[in-house]
Protein backbone atom coordinates (compact mmCIF):
# COMPACT_ATOMS: atom_id res chain seq x y z
CA UNK A 1 0.00 0.00 0.00
CA UNK A 2 1.36 3.38 -0.91
CA UNK A 3 2.09 5.97 1.76
CA UNK A 4 1.67 9.65 1.10
CA UNK A 5 4.59 12.03 1.44
CA UNK A 6 3.52 13.04 4.98
CA UNK A 7 4.32 9.60 6.28
CA UNK A 8 7.54 9.37 4.32
CA UNK A 9 8.77 12.63 5.82
CA UNK A 10 7.67 11.64 9.34
CA UNK A 11 9.30 8.25 9.09
CA UNK A 12 12.55 9.80 7.96
CA UNK A 13 12.64 12.03 11.05
CA UNK A 14 11.49 9.48 13.64
CA UNK A 15 13.68 8.55 16.59
CA UNK A 16 13.62 4.86 15.74
CA UNK A 17 15.09 4.62 12.22
CA UNK A 18 15.97 0.98 12.69
CA UNK A 19 12.31 0.17 13.24
CA UNK A 20 10.88 1.80 10.13
CA UNK A 21 8.31 -0.46 8.52
CA UNK A 22 7.19 -0.94 4.98
CA UNK A 23 3.43 -0.46 5.20
CA UNK A 24 0.00 -1.01 6.60
CA UNK A 25 -1.56 -4.44 6.90
CA UNK A 26 -4.05 -5.35 4.19
CA UNK A 27 -7.10 -7.26 5.36
CA UNK A 28 -7.51 -8.74 1.85
CA UNK A 29 -4.49 -10.93 2.52
CA UNK A 30 -5.90 -12.45 5.70
CA UNK A 31 -6.73 -16.13 5.77
CA UNK A 32 -9.34 -17.87 7.88
CA UNK A 33 -6.98 -18.27 10.85
CA UNK A 34 -6.66 -14.50 11.18
CA UNK A 35 -3.03 -14.28 10.04
CA UNK A 36 -1.67 -12.89 6.78
CA UNK A 37 0.29 -14.77 4.18
CA UNK A 38 3.21 -12.36 4.53
CA UNK A 39 3.57 -12.99 8.28
CA UNK A 40 5.19 -16.36 7.74
CA UNK A 41 7.75 -14.84 5.41
CA UNK A 42 8.83 -11.63 7.14
CA UNK A 43 8.04 -9.62 10.29
CA UNK A 44 4.87 -7.60 10.01
CA UNK A 45 5.54 -3.85 9.98
CA UNK A 46 3.18 -1.45 11.70
CA UNK A 47 2.95 2.34 11.91
CA UNK A 48 1.75 4.05 15.09
CA UNK A 49 0.80 7.73 14.78
CA UNK A 50 1.08 9.98 17.83
CA UNK A 51 1.06 13.82 17.96
CA UNK A 52 3.56 16.69 18.12
CA UNK A 53 6.90 15.98 19.73
CA UNK A 54 6.55 18.41 22.66
CA UNK A 55 3.72 16.53 24.35
CA UNK A 56 3.28 13.03 25.75
CA UNK A 57 1.80 11.14 22.78
CA UNK A 58 5.07 11.00 20.86
CA UNK A 59 7.46 9.76 23.58
CA UNK A 60 4.91 7.23 24.84
CA UNK A 61 4.26 6.11 21.26
CA UNK A 62 7.99 5.63 20.78
CA UNK A 63 8.09 3.63 24.03
CA UNK A 64 5.24 1.35 22.91
CA UNK A 65 6.81 0.86 19.47
CA UNK A 66 10.16 0.03 21.04
CA UNK A 67 8.61 -2.47 23.44
CA UNK A 68 6.61 -4.25 20.73
CA UNK A 69 9.58 -4.35 18.35
CA UNK A 70 11.89 -5.71 21.04
CA UNK A 71 9.53 -8.30 22.53
CA UNK A 72 7.66 -9.68 19.49
CA UNK A 73 8.38 -10.57 15.85
CA UNK A 74 6.39 -7.45 14.91
CA UNK A 75 8.16 -4.27 13.86
CA UNK A 76 6.46 -1.04 14.93
CA UNK A 77 7.47 2.54 14.25
CA UNK A 78 6.03 5.59 16.02
CA UNK A 79 5.74 8.82 14.02
CA UNK A 80 4.65 12.31 14.95
CA UNK A 81 1.46 13.86 13.58
CA UNK A 82 -0.90 16.77 14.21
CA UNK A 83 -2.76 14.67 16.78
CA UNK A 84 -6.09 12.89 17.17
CA UNK A 85 -7.96 14.38 14.20
CA UNK A 86 -5.21 13.56 11.75
CA UNK A 87 -4.72 10.16 13.36
CA UNK A 88 -8.36 9.26 12.77
CA UNK A 89 -8.01 10.31 9.13
CA UNK A 90 -4.78 8.34 8.72
CA UNK A 91 -6.47 5.24 10.13
CA UNK A 92 -9.45 5.78 7.83
CA UNK A 93 -7.12 6.04 4.80
CA UNK A 94 -5.11 2.97 5.94
CA UNK A 95 -2.03 5.16 6.09
CA UNK A 96 -1.52 4.12 9.71
CA UNK A 97 -2.17 0.88 11.57
CA UNK A 98 -2.41 2.18 15.12
CA UNK A 99 -2.85 5.59 16.75
CA UNK A 100 -3.05 7.24 20.12
CA UNK A 101 -6.36 9.07 20.43
CA UNK A 102 -7.84 11.47 22.91
CA UNK A 103 -10.90 10.06 24.71
CA UNK A 104 -13.04 13.07 23.76
CA UNK A 105 -12.05 12.83 20.11
CA UNK A 106 -12.70 9.11 19.98
CA UNK A 107 -16.16 9.58 21.51
CA UNK A 108 -17.05 12.36 19.05
CA UNK A 109 -15.83 10.45 16.01
CA UNK A 110 -17.47 7.14 16.91
CA UNK A 111 -20.86 8.68 17.81
CA UNK A 112 -20.93 11.28 15.04
CA UNK A 113 -21.26 14.22 17.43
CA UNK A 114 -19.34 17.42 18.12
CA UNK A 115 -16.71 17.92 15.42
CA UNK A 116 -18.13 14.87 13.61
CA UNK A 117 -21.77 15.92 13.87
CA UNK A 118 -23.76 13.69 11.51
CA UNK A 119 -20.59 12.21 10.01
CA UNK A 120 -19.32 9.43 12.27
CA UNK A 121 -15.87 7.96 11.69
CA UNK A 122 -15.51 4.37 12.90
CA UNK A 123 -12.40 3.02 11.16
CA UNK A 124 -10.76 2.25 14.49
CA UNK A 125 -11.13 -0.07 17.48
CA UNK A 126 -9.73 0.32 20.98
CA UNK A 127 -6.89 -1.73 22.43
CA UNK A 128 -6.40 -0.16 25.85
CA UNK A 129 -6.64 2.99 27.88
CA UNK A 130 -3.22 4.57 28.28
CA UNK A 131 -2.79 7.54 30.61
CA UNK A 132 -4.74 10.61 31.54
CA UNK A 133 -4.39 13.70 29.39
CA UNK A 134 -3.92 16.42 32.00
CA UNK A 135 -5.10 19.93 31.12
CA UNK A 136 -2.34 22.55 31.43
CA UNK A 137 -3.79 26.00 30.72
CA UNK A 138 -0.76 28.24 31.23
CA UNK A 139 -0.56 32.04 31.45
CA UNK A 140 1.97 34.53 32.86
CA UNK A 141 1.50 34.76 36.63
CA UNK A 142 0.80 38.48 36.41
CA UNK A 143 -2.58 37.62 34.87
CA UNK A 144 -3.42 34.84 37.37
CA UNK A 145 -5.47 36.87 39.82
CA UNK A 146 -7.60 33.97 41.11
CA UNK A 147 -5.47 31.07 39.95
CA UNK A 148 -8.32 29.27 38.16
CA UNK A 149 -9.46 29.01 34.56
CA UNK A 150 -11.56 32.18 34.79
CA UNK A 151 -8.28 34.10 34.70
CA UNK A 152 -8.34 33.63 30.94
CA UNK A 153 -10.62 36.67 31.06
CA UNK A 154 -7.49 38.64 31.93
CA UNK A 155 -5.82 37.83 28.60
CA UNK A 156 -8.78 38.56 26.34
CA UNK A 157 -7.81 40.07 22.96
CA UNK A 158 -4.33 38.62 23.38
CA UNK A 159 -2.72 35.73 21.47
CA UNK A 160 -3.52 32.30 22.86
CA UNK A 161 -2.16 28.97 21.58
CA UNK A 162 -5.09 26.58 21.18
CA UNK A 163 -3.12 23.79 19.45
CA UNK A 164 -2.55 22.75 15.87
CA UNK A 165 -5.58 23.00 13.60
CA UNK A 166 -7.77 19.93 13.79
CA UNK A 167 -5.78 18.40 16.62
CA UNK A 168 -7.19 16.84 19.76
CA UNK A 169 -5.55 19.72 21.62
CA UNK A 170 -7.58 22.28 19.68
CA UNK A 171 -10.87 20.39 19.95
CA UNK A 172 -10.58 19.62 23.66
CA UNK A 173 -9.48 23.20 24.38
CA UNK A 174 -12.39 24.63 22.41
CA UNK A 175 -14.81 22.24 24.12
CA UNK A 176 -13.63 23.25 27.59
CA UNK A 177 -13.64 26.97 26.86
CA UNK A 178 -17.00 26.91 25.06
CA UNK A 179 -18.68 25.13 27.96
CA UNK A 180 -17.27 27.80 30.28
CA UNK A 181 -18.73 30.58 28.14
CA UNK A 182 -15.64 31.67 26.21
CA UNK A 183 -15.68 32.32 22.48
CA UNK A 184 -12.21 31.39 21.26
CA UNK A 185 -12.41 33.41 18.05
CA UNK A 186 -13.93 36.51 19.63
CA UNK A 187 -12.20 36.51 23.01
CA UNK A 188 -8.64 35.69 21.91
CA UNK A 189 -6.32 35.80 18.93
CA UNK A 190 -5.94 32.04 18.50
CA UNK A 191 -2.56 30.66 17.45
CA UNK A 192 -2.44 27.19 15.91
CA UNK A 193 0.97 25.91 16.95
CA UNK A 194 2.41 22.82 18.60
CA UNK A 195 3.58 22.30 22.15
CA UNK A 196 7.27 23.12 21.88
CA UNK A 197 6.51 26.12 19.66
CA UNK A 198 3.95 27.32 22.20
CA UNK A 199 6.43 27.09 25.06
CA UNK A 200 8.97 29.11 23.08
CA UNK A 201 6.34 31.69 22.09
CA UNK A 202 5.20 32.11 25.71
CA UNK A 203 8.80 32.57 26.80
CA UNK A 204 9.35 35.21 24.10
CA UNK A 205 6.12 37.04 24.93
CA UNK A 206 4.57 36.33 21.53
CA UNK A 207 1.55 34.65 23.15
CA UNK A 208 -0.15 35.29 26.49
CA UNK A 209 -1.31 31.75 27.14
CA UNK A 210 -1.31 28.18 25.90
CA UNK A 211 -3.34 25.00 26.09
CA UNK A 212 -1.18 21.87 26.68
CA UNK A 213 -3.16 18.70 27.42
CA UNK A 214 -0.59 15.99 28.14
CA UNK A 215 0.63 13.45 30.65
CA UNK A 216 2.61 14.73 33.59
CA UNK A 217 5.37 15.77 33.20
CA UNK A 218 4.77 17.39 29.80
CA UNK A 219 8.07 18.42 28.22
CA UNK A 220 6.66 21.73 26.96
CA UNK A 221 5.57 22.66 30.49
CA UNK A 222 8.91 21.58 31.94
CA UNK A 223 10.58 23.73 29.29
CA UNK A 224 8.46 26.72 30.28
CA UNK A 225 9.10 26.37 34.00
CA UNK A 226 12.82 25.90 33.46
CA UNK A 227 13.14 28.88 31.11
CA UNK A 228 10.78 31.36 32.77
CA UNK A 229 10.76 30.31 36.42
CA UNK A 230 7.88 29.14 38.59
CA UNK A 231 7.32 32.70 39.80
CA UNK A 232 6.56 33.90 36.27
CA UNK A 233 3.96 31.42 34.99
CA UNK A 234 0.84 29.72 36.34
CA UNK A 235 -1.00 26.51 35.45
CA UNK A 236 -4.65 27.44 36.00
CA UNK A 237 -6.83 25.34 38.29
CA UNK A 238 -10.47 24.24 37.95
CA UNK A 239 -13.20 24.36 40.58
CA UNK A 240 -15.85 21.65 41.00
CA UNK A 241 -18.51 23.92 39.52
CA UNK A 242 -16.33 24.67 36.50
CA UNK A 243 -15.76 20.96 35.97
CA UNK A 244 -19.52 20.33 36.08
CA UNK A 245 -20.04 22.92 33.33
CA UNK A 246 -17.28 21.40 31.19
CA UNK A 247 -18.79 17.92 31.46
CA UNK A 248 -22.30 19.07 30.48
CA UNK A 249 -22.05 17.73 26.90
CA UNK A 250 -19.15 15.28 26.97
CA UNK A 251 -18.62 13.97 30.52
CA UNK A 252 -15.08 12.68 29.97
CA UNK A 253 -13.09 14.85 32.38
CA UNK A 254 -12.23 14.08 35.99
CA UNK A 255 -10.44 16.05 38.74
CA UNK A 256 -6.67 15.65 38.65
CA UNK A 257 -3.97 16.87 41.02
CA UNK A 258 -0.53 17.71 39.69
CA UNK A 259 1.67 16.92 42.63
CA UNK A 260 4.15 19.49 43.92
CA UNK A 261 7.53 19.10 42.30
CA UNK A 262 6.22 17.72 39.02
CA UNK A 263 7.80 20.77 37.31
CA UNK A 264 10.93 22.78 38.14
CA UNK A 265 10.27 25.09 41.08
CA UNK A 266 6.60 24.06 41.41
CA UNK A 267 6.16 24.05 45.18
CA UNK A 268 2.38 23.68 45.45
CA UNK A 269 0.02 21.00 44.11
CA UNK A 270 -2.23 22.15 41.26
CA UNK A 271 -5.90 21.14 40.99
CA UNK A 272 -6.70 20.68 37.31
CA UNK A 273 -8.73 18.19 35.25
CA UNK A 274 -7.90 15.28 32.93
CA UNK A 275 -9.38 12.86 30.41
CA UNK A 276 -8.08 9.51 29.27
CA UNK A 277 -6.18 8.70 26.08
CA UNK A 278 -6.39 5.30 24.42
CA UNK A 279 -4.51 3.16 21.94
CA UNK A 280 -6.55 2.52 18.78
CA UNK A 281 -6.02 0.16 15.86
CA UNK A 282 -7.46 -0.19 12.37
CA UNK A 283 -10.15 -2.92 12.38
CA UNK A 284 -8.46 -4.75 9.48
CA UNK A 285 -5.43 -5.66 11.59
CA UNK A 286 -5.74 -9.37 12.35
CA UNK A 287 -6.80 -10.66 15.75
CA UNK A 288 -3.55 -12.44 16.56
CA UNK A 289 -1.47 -9.30 15.94
CA UNK A 290 -3.65 -7.20 18.24
CA UNK A 291 -3.70 -9.97 20.84
CA UNK A 292 0.11 -10.04 20.85
CA UNK A 293 0.31 -6.24 21.15
CA UNK A 294 -2.12 -6.19 24.08
CA UNK A 295 -0.44 -9.10 25.83
CA UNK A 296 3.03 -7.65 25.34
CA UNK A 297 2.05 -4.29 26.80
CA UNK A 298 0.59 -5.78 29.97
CA UNK A 299 3.13 -8.54 30.47
CA UNK A 300 5.90 -5.93 30.22
CA UNK A 301 4.13 -2.98 31.81
CA UNK A 302 6.88 -2.30 34.34
CA UNK A 303 9.37 -1.99 31.49
CA UNK A 304 7.07 0.34 29.56
CA UNK A 305 6.66 2.49 32.66
CA UNK A 306 10.41 3.07 32.78
CA UNK A 307 10.18 5.01 29.50
CA UNK A 308 7.76 7.73 30.63
CA UNK A 309 6.19 8.64 33.95
CA UNK A 310 2.73 9.07 32.39
CA UNK A 311 2.47 5.31 31.78
CA UNK A 312 2.73 4.64 35.53
CA UNK A 313 -1.03 5.28 35.63
CA UNK A 314 -1.65 2.20 33.46
CA UNK A 315 -2.76 -1.10 34.98
CA UNK A 316 -4.66 -4.14 33.75
CA UNK A 317 -7.62 -3.48 36.06
CA UNK A 318 -8.04 -0.02 34.45
CA UNK A 319 -7.37 -1.14 30.86
CA UNK A 320 -10.96 -0.75 29.65
CA UNK A 321 -12.52 1.43 32.35
CA UNK A 322 -14.22 4.43 30.77
CA UNK A 323 -13.66 3.40 27.15
CA UNK A 324 -16.41 4.58 24.77
CA UNK A 325 -15.10 2.86 21.62
CA UNK A 326 -15.55 -0.90 20.97
CA UNK A 327 -12.51 -3.08 21.54
CA UNK A 328 -10.72 -4.96 18.79
CA UNK A 329 -11.47 -8.72 19.06
CA UNK A 330 -7.76 -9.42 19.59
CA UNK A 331 -7.77 -7.22 22.70
CA UNK A 332 -11.04 -8.80 23.88
CA UNK A 333 -9.42 -12.25 23.71
CA UNK A 334 -6.54 -11.18 25.96
CA UNK A 335 -8.73 -9.41 28.51
CA UNK A 336 -11.12 -12.35 28.75
CA UNK A 337 -8.15 -14.65 29.37
CA UNK A 338 -7.21 -12.36 32.25
CA UNK A 339 -10.70 -12.56 33.71
CA UNK A 340 -11.93 -9.08 32.79
CA UNK A 341 -15.65 -8.72 32.15
CA UNK A 342 -16.22 -6.91 28.86
CA UNK A 343 -19.28 -4.59 28.76
CA UNK A 344 -21.60 -5.15 25.82
CA UNK A 345 -20.94 -1.67 24.41
CA UNK A 346 -17.25 -2.52 24.02
CA UNK A 347 -17.85 -5.63 21.93
CA UNK A 348 -17.57 -4.81 18.23
CA UNK A 349 -20.53 -5.87 16.13
Q: What assembly state would you assign to the polypeptide chains in this entry?
A: single chain
Main beta sheet, described?
Answer: 6 strands, mixed
Element order, helices and strands? HEHEHEHEEEHHEHEHEHEEHHH
CATH class of the largest domain: Alpha Beta
CATH superfamily of the largest domain: Periplasmic binding protein-like II
Q: Output the radius of gyration.
A: 20 Å
Large-scale geometry: globular
Structural class: alpha/beta
**Into which percent range does the helicity of residues fall?**
25-40%
Q: What percent strand? A: 15-25%
> Architecture of the largest domain, according to CATH?
3-Layer(aba) Sandwich
Give the count of helical stretches. Answer: 12
What value does the average pLDDT take? 88
Distance between the termini: 27 Å
Tell how many strands the DSSP assignment holds.
11
Any low-confidence stretches, pLDDT <50, length ≥5? 1-33, 35-40
Q: Within the CATH hierarchy, at the fold level, what is the topology of the largest domain?
A: D-Maltodextrin-Binding Protein, domain 2
Question: How would you summarize this macromolecular structure in one to three sentences?
Answer:
The chain is of the alpha/beta class and 349 residues long.
